[in-house]
């Protein structure tokens, strides 16, 4: 699970270097058009993304949701149709195709962004002023829009949450000893 909240715009990679645009702006809580949730995914992650979208909307979240992917084969028409049946306002962005088309990424670099590196590419590409970057396996218990009003976010423009760590072998392959209370 990963959740990152950011305020501000990232500048382009015109000279090959990434820099944060220092025009960080305060929007007094932000408007629904200048803030949103970014998820980076591929076809195999659509079921989890659908669940998260349903949770967000059920909890009352009205922020824009942008689903980023890298290449047409990572998000099939069936996947798009399935997501849009749940929430027609979701936007899909093929960031790799956009960046290759604009000359900011070479075709031979595309495979490098088909994993965790898609997240920084999405943050560079987005037009949103306020971004909540979520993994599709995030578990939300309240509307995350509350985070836009957290003082730490207002002061610094960022919030970070530690990713949960699960050692799957520890829970699924270990023999668990239960105390025998019947012998007392």
From TrEMBL:
Cellular localization per UniProt: Membrane
The entry's keywords: Glycoprotein, Glycosyltransferase, Membrane, Signal-anchor, Transferase, Transmembrane, Transmembrane helix
Pfam family, one: Mannosyl_trans3
One of the GO biological process terms: protein O-linked glycosylation
Membrane topology designation: Single-pass type II membrane protein
Keyword flag Transferase: yes
Coiled-coil intervals: none
Family: Belongs to the MNN1/MNT family.
Protein name: Nucleotide-diphospho-sugar transferase domain-containing protein
Species the sequence originates in: Aphanomyces astaci (Crayfish plague agent)
């Amino acid at each position: 699970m990963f959740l990152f909240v950011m305020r501000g715009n990232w500048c382009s990679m015109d000279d090959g270097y990434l820099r944060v645009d220092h025009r960080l702006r305060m929007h007094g809580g932000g408007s629904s058009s200048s803030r949103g949730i970014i998820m980076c995914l591929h076809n195999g992650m659509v079921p989890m993304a659908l669940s998260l979208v349903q949770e967000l909307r059920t909890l009352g979240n009205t922020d824009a949701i942008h689903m980023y992917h890298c290449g047409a084969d990572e998000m099939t028409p069936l996947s798009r149709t399935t997501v849009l049946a749940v929430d027609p306002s979701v936007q899909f962005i093929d960031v790799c195709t956009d960046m290759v088309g604009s000359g900011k990424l070479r075709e031979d670099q595309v495979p490098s962004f088909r994993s965790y590196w898609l997240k920084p590419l999405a943050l560079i590409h987005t037009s949103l002023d306020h971004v909540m970057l979520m993994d599709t396996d995030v578990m939300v218990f309240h509307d995350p829009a509350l985070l836009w009003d957290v003082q730490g976010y207002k002061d610094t423009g960022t919030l970070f949450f530690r990713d949960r760590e699960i050692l799957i072998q520890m829970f699924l392959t270990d023999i668990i000893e239960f105390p025998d209370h019947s012998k007392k």
